[in-house]
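User: Run a structure prediction on this.
Assistant: Running it now.
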Amino acid sequence: MSNDENRRYKELRRPGGLAERLGQLRREAKLTGTALAERIGQGRYTVSKYESGTRAPTPEVLEAWAEACGRPELANELKDMLAGAEMIWRTWSGRDVETIQLDYDLFVASADHIAEFELSVVAGPLQTPAYTRAMLGLFFGHTDTDLDAVVAGRLARWQALYDPTKRWDLLMSESVLYLWPDAGERTADVMLGQLDRLSAAIGTPNVRIGFVPFGQPLSAWPQTSFWIFEDLVVVETPVGDAKPSTGSDVGEFRAHLDKLWSVAVTDETEIRAMLDRARATARATKGGRG
């Protein structure tokens, strides 16, 4: 089995995942593997592979499985679980940047509660176009044309920030205010514009903004940036790659994030003071102009 296949089937085998759910349904229906295999027109060995997560069923098999177990109303739930596992495997195996962006669009669109922790860059939904362009240029090295398309796509995605049905928790290290993506002679201006954008975002309905401040004892160490899209975690790595996780990982990341929020600056006045200090640094960098 190839590495790609291993990653694919790992998603099926996760605790609470599709493989576990199929076995649970069969047992609840008091069916042996052989009896279920006969009802759905599959071999006993094939059924065993579905339940062990070493073979991916088709949507048609899932419909037959739910029917055979006396639970036809669960067919769509099973197919959604399959689609989720397939999407994760497809997206994070040999993918390109454009594919990643499209799947982030899907993650954002399908989640009602979105949480983000950023260690080195401003939270995505709060970025200005100029900041995003400079940052992505460093990460991906796109041509100008490619960057224009990717930046435009990201800005369109982040319009969801103003969707009243969604809730956002955007937490950043204070370090993001002092780590500037290189935009040449415009670097300080780009960062000043970004700081203004952060100020304007304070008080946005359904959006909680916080900063883990310098000089604060921590009970959880912020080693990497990550997203939580309800029951999916996406962890970003130092090389611009990202790895998705589901199952028990989500609870662990939520607990970790709660610890970081417990020491975060969330008061609007304190955040504005923090932003003012960062502005002073940016202005001093450009020789006191602006």
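Residues 1-6, 89-94 have pLDDT under 50 and may be disordered.
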